[in-house]
Design goal:
- The complex is a heterodimer of chains A (199) and B (443).
- Chain A has 199 residues and is mostly helical.
- Chain A has a domain of 120 residues: Cytochrome c-like domain (Cytochrome Bc1 Complex, Chain D, domain 2, Orthogonal Bundle), CATH 1.10.760.
- Chain A contains seven helices and four strands, in the order αββαααααβαβ.
- A two-stranded antiparallel ribbon of chain A has the order 2-3.
- In chain A, helix 5 crosses helix 6.
- The N and C termini of chain A lie far apart (76 Å).
- Chain B has 443 residues and is mainly beta.
- Chain B is built from seven helices and 24 strands.
- In chain B, strands 5-4-13-8-9 form a five-stranded mixed beta sheet. In chain B, strands 6, 7, 10, 11 and 12 form a five-stranded antiparallel beta sheet that branches.
- In chain B, a hairpin with a 5-residue loop joins strand 4 and strand 5.
- The two termini of chain B are 35 Å apart.
- Classes of the chains: A mainly alpha (199), B mainly beta (443).
- Chains A and B meet through helix 1, strand 1, helix 5 and strand 4 of A and strand 4, strand 5, helix 3, helix 5 and helix 6 of B.
């Protein structure tokens, strides 16, 4: 009984793996699932401390809490200014985090959160996981909301009295929201000319 | 003075400025007599004694000291290192584009010194977003959750218990060659193309663990996230995850180096390096991509009209001549074996053509076995250099029929300008002057 069960499980795993490994029909084929399972079951709650990703297009995953532009400036001047400079205009280790929206059609594109984030929750996701660079994941959620509010305000995208929370942050309209297109390569169409190729 | 055994001097790579004569000094004594007169005259330090001799003249042999003494004894324990005479073969921090800090930064592989297709682990290029963490494998965990039937946790011991898979694949940063679209900014191929390496990777298919967790209906994307200070993260389409994606712990026969993701990294064969997330700690399944900063503000490609191409993760077919390449000096007219690498994120390399006249005429080079899927492929072409100025370049074709374009051809579709523009797979010419100097000729 037991062994029959195992055989069925292995067969099912193999069948699954067989269709799973070649959905796009590329040249590589990897060996089938060996039919052993070493993962330990856990609940999604067990992953809570690690579960920090935000789906930035609609803000899914943004935690409770809120923060104001004014609080953001206060925290910024303590924790961020050394590297990013006053008013996020550029500092000792990183360039400006302000403006550049209208440089996109020029050959001097200025890349900032204002110009390069189609969705405002990217600020929350990135600051919470990676900033301040010398002490990442040390900020409280309220502080991350406040810093997001402050950087958006410096970019002229929210007023000075703005308070950001899960709902208001996801609702901010970013200037280059529609600037991103999905990969459509190959775009080039080079041909394999062998003789007299330069006319 | 270090000795070199190659007939082509490789220059020193410490600066972004053109190599000076001094950097060509470390040639062995017997090499000097091979130098052409013009080179010998130009290099003050070299133009001593027998300057002007252009016919090879061997010297009488004496018994070397190494024949007359015992060598170093075998130590009780050791991790062997390269010869002290190979100290110039170094991974080097980016110095053409210099970042203001060296935590979110990169270092480049000395491709001009690589023999064969495998990059030694100590010189595999690096790109980190917050430096290199040192992770105790006994404490490391991998989690799979989100749209799965059974969220799972793995220790490194769990992962090492599975049967393993080994695959040779190249790894290239999307930013490779970005300093050299419209300017001859780099001197050497290490500076222009050194965000490229190739290794044999060992681990397990990612699909195995996804099968185990059980994908829920509608699962279309997953995220891979690192345990480093940047929590580096990318969204990956489920098709890639189920196709050839690996979770690897081994690299060229040993555990991953810390700077390559020890103890566990994702490996997305043929895709831009940063999708092969290092120090992998978490995989979450979803129905949509997340649009992280690493997918909008970075790792996107400017198009004409202010648009940006997103999720352009595949590294298209590319090749470069590594010998002779920028900063080298040809010893004189005669046989030169042109060598280089070709690779494609779409499959195998099927042909490489080489031009000696700046792209007017091309001839097919020899591909050296093994030629593998999404792997560096060696090409070679014997060239009888007549001593006249030349412009050499390679052009690769892959198993989908895609032909490596020139920068001009790429420029017809994308916004190119000096700046942070990714995915440069353009044909890369080197000029050879009459006195044998090899220089970047992209612009």
């Amino acid at each position: 009984m037991r062994s029959l069960k195992l055989v069925t499980a292995v067969a099912a795993a193999l069948a699954l793996a067989a269709c799973a490994t070649q959905p796009t029909g590329t040249t590589s084929s990897l060996p089938a699932h060996p039919g052993v399972k070493y993962g330990k079951a856990m609940s999604d709650l067990d992953a809570d401390a690690w579960n920090i990703d935000i789906r930035t297009s609609d803000g899914r995953g943004l935690p409770p809490g809120s923060g104001s532009v004014a609080d953001g400036k206060r925290i910024y001047d303590q924790r961020c200014v050394a590297c990013h400079g006053p008013d996020a205009k550029g500092g000792s280790v990183y360039g400006s985090m302000v403006g550049g929206f209208d440089t996109m059609k020029t050959d001097k594109r200025v890349l900032t959160p204002g110009s390069m984030y189609p969705y405002a929750p990217i600020l929350f996701d990135y600051i919470r996981r990676a900033m301040p660079m010398d002490s990442p994941q040390s900020l409280k959620d309220n502080e991350v909301y406040a810093l997001s509010a402050y950087i958006l305000n410096l970019n002229g995208l929210v007023p000075a009295n703005a308070v950001m929370d899960a709902r208001s942050l996801a609702a901010v309209q970013m200037p280059n929201r529609n600037a991103f297109v999905v990969d459509d390569r190959p775009d080039t169409k080079a041909v394999r000319c062998m003789r007299d190729c330069i006319k | 003075m270090a000795r070199r055994s190659l007939p082509v001097s490789t220059g020193d790579l410490t600066s972004a400025s053109p190599p000076t004569e001094a950097e060509f000094q470390p040639l062995s004594r017997d090499r000097r007599s091979f130098l052409r007169k013009s080179v010998a005259m130009a290099g003050g330090a070299l133009a001593t004694g027998a300057a002007g001799i252009s016919v090879a003249q061997a010297q009488a042999l004496t018994v070397p000291e190494t024949n007359k003494a015992m060598g170093r004894p075998i130590p009780a324990n050791e991790y062997g290192m390269p010869s002290e005479f190979e100290a110039h073969v170094r991974r080097r921090r980016t110095d053409v584009l210099v970042n203001k800090q060296n935590f979110s930064d990169w270092s480049m592989t000395p491709l001009q010194h690589q023999h064969g297709i495998v990059t030694p682990n100590g010189v595999v290029f690096e790109r980190h977003h917050a430096g290199v963490p040192d992770i105790d494998p006994a404490k490391h965990k991998l989690v799979i959750h989100g749209m799965v039937k059974k969220p799972l946790q793995y220790t490194m011991n769990d992962i090492l218990r599975y049967p393993s898979v080994s695959r040779f694949h190249f790894l290239e940063c999307s930013g490779n060659t970005l300093t050299d679209w419209v300017r001859n900014a780099s001197t050497t191929v290490q500076q222009s193309h050194g965000l490229l390496s190739c290794a044999q990777w060992t681990g397990i298919p990612l699909s195995w663990l996804l099968d185990e967790a059980g994908l829920e209906e509608g699962a279309k994307w997953l995220l891979v996230e690192g345990a480093d200070g940047s929590g580096h993260i990318r969204s990956i389409p489920i098709e890639k995850a189920l196709d050839d994606a690996l979770l690897v712990y081994g690299q060229n026969g040993e555990m991953l180096r810390p700077e390559q993701g020890y103890p566990l990294r994702a490996l997305m064969p043929g895709w831009e390096g940063n999708t092969s997330v290092k120090w992998l700690r978490r995989i979450k399944v979803s129905d949509q991509p997340w649009h992280f900063r690493s997918e909008t503000a970075r790792y996107t490609d400017p198009l004409p009209g202010g648009k940006w191409r997103q999720f352009s993760m595949l590294m298209e077919c590319k090749s470069v001549i590594t010998r002779p390449s920028g900063g080298m000096n040809l010893p004189g007219p005669g046989l030169i074996e042109i060598q280089g690498f070709a690779w494609s994120g779409r499959g195998r390399i099927t042909a490489v053509d080489v031009t000696l006249d700046g792209g007017r005429n091309w001839q097919e080079a020899t591909l050296e076995e093994p030629v593998m899927d999404k792997c560096l492929t060696r090409f070679r072409l014997r060239w009888n250099w007549d001593g006249k100025p030349a412009k050499i370049a390679s052009r690769a074709v892959d198993s989908t029929g895609y032909v490596q374009p020139t920068v001009q051809e790429i420029g017809a579709y994308r916004g190119l300008y000096p700046g942070f523009v990714q995915h440069h797979n353009g044909v890369f010419p080197w000029s050879v002057s009459a006195n044998g100097e090899v220089k970047n000729a992209i612009a």
